């Protein structure tokens, strides 16, 4: 497997990474990007120490952000910066290992519990994305998960456990606030809806000699319930907003939060899963760490009855098992419209 992290810095972009003009990010075209004065909402969680009044206000802010953007950033979230940076350093150390030490982890087999690969599993053509990544199950730290994690660098496993414990707690806090903001029971998302293994994607984008002809990652929506992303201080994430791309500008110490397909379905379309993508830059390497909260495979997914009104707001989606959705997502190559079409209720 030909990894970008194994290669010396490129002076030019190899032809296999050059996208045709109609598929490029086109950062130089002002009409493709949302104006700079439109930014993602930044929500202060006050380290989780919320009074009843403040909790209701924060829950309302999250729902408003979800309806408008499908994305928001959280600060004062209670995850210690030391824990975030320690794991980011360990993950960067893994990508920096000699090629022969990373080789045993290289695979495009999506059933593996820890795998290192490049570009994307959803190719949609011959052109490669300017990205290496590892994907793995990170929480809970069960024996089956831990035995698949790399032994080098030695700090990887202990720092990962610390980081994931903290992020899991934050995810549960956010899900409780989402439930309250929607008028659901505070524990609505507990149990099977958020009880599957949390998966992690660590994406590495080395500096690119010509970002105008490359892409970091294809436009897609996430398949699961909730994503929490650490992007540190290098921008590259873009989210679709109003038919244009919004650059998600880094905020010191923040997590970027977005909703997956399961949230859209469970809320009967109130909170949409929004397309997003990654672009490259020529100055600095960028590493993003995304934690994906999954339902259990056997979880029955359906719109919450409290959010369905057969007269005015009928159910938009049929019932299904989460495992069925996972199969449909892979078959549709992560295409938002194609995968959702399989689960929509037709009312012709």
TrEMBL record:
Residues 196-295 form the Fe2OG dioxygenase domain. Keywords: Iron, Metal-binding, Oxidoreductase. SUPFAM superfamilies: Clavaminate synthase-like. InterPro entries: DIOX_N (IPR026992), IPNS-like_FE2OG_OXY (IPR044861), IPNS-like_sf (IPR027443), Oxoglu/Fe-dep_dioxygenase_dom (IPR005123), Plant_2OG-oxidoreductases (IPR050295). GO terms for molecular function: metal ion binding; oxidoreductase activity. Gene3D superfamilies: B-lactam Antibiotic, Isopenicillin N Synthase, Chain. Pfam families: 2OG-FeII_Oxy, DIOX_N. Belongs to the iron/ascorbate-dependent oxidoreductase family. This is Fe2OG dioxygenase domain-containing protein. It comes from Lolium multiflorum. The lineage of its organism: Eukaryota, Viridiplantae, Streptophyta, Embryophyta, Tracheophyta.
